[in-house]
Specification:
mainly alpha; two-stranded antiparallel sheet; 2 strands; 65% helix
Length: 158
């Protein structure tokens, strides 16, 4: 009678040592492919992340450009406003209103007006005479002060 242990021992083939080597090769191949697949996934992920960062940088720059354009438009509106104010300041009616209301000036009366007239030329010199006008001290304004200054200089002609 053969025993069970002997039977199992006899059925085992000692020449089958090549099977574990094949398994090792298959395992190495599987490990190599798994490593390659893992590296490909990691590189693809890094590629997508870098693309996302690129789009984020582009979006940030576009937003900055938008802000600068908005600031430029605001400045152009302000420039136009100042141009309109400048044109308004150059109009004589506005200047006159400002002089009368803010500075307290008034339109000169007839006796305050100084007339200049050409009396003749002698040796290339033009002689100018100032018509004598009487200015009351109470009504002396800006023009009255100028007139009295001219009279004090004795700039009267013949």
């Amino acid at each position: 009678m053969t025993s069970v242990a002997y039977k199992k021992y006899m059925e085992y083939d000692f020449n089958e040592t090549s099977i574990p080597a094949k398994r090792r090769e298959n395992k190495k191949k599987k490990t190599f492919y798994a490593t390659k697949l893992f590296m490909a996934i990691v590189l693809t992920g890094l590629l997508f992340i870098s693309i996302l960062f690129g789009y984020a940088a582009i979006s940030e720059i576009k937003y900055q450009v938008y802000e600068h354009k908005q600031a430029m438009n605001d400045l152009q509106i302000e420039i136009e406003k100042y141009k309109i104010e400048l044109e308004a300041m150059n109009k004589t009616s506005i200047i006159e209103d400002k002089a009368v209301h803010e500075l307290g000036m008034q339109v000169p009366q007839r006796q305050q007006i100084v007339y200049l007239g050409e009396t003749g030329e002698e040796n290339g010199i033009t002689r100018v005479s100032i018509a004598s006008q009487s200015v009351e001290p109470a009504e002396r304004g800006f023009i009255g002060n100028i007139y009295s200054s001219i009279l004090s200089l004795k700039f009267m002609g013949d």
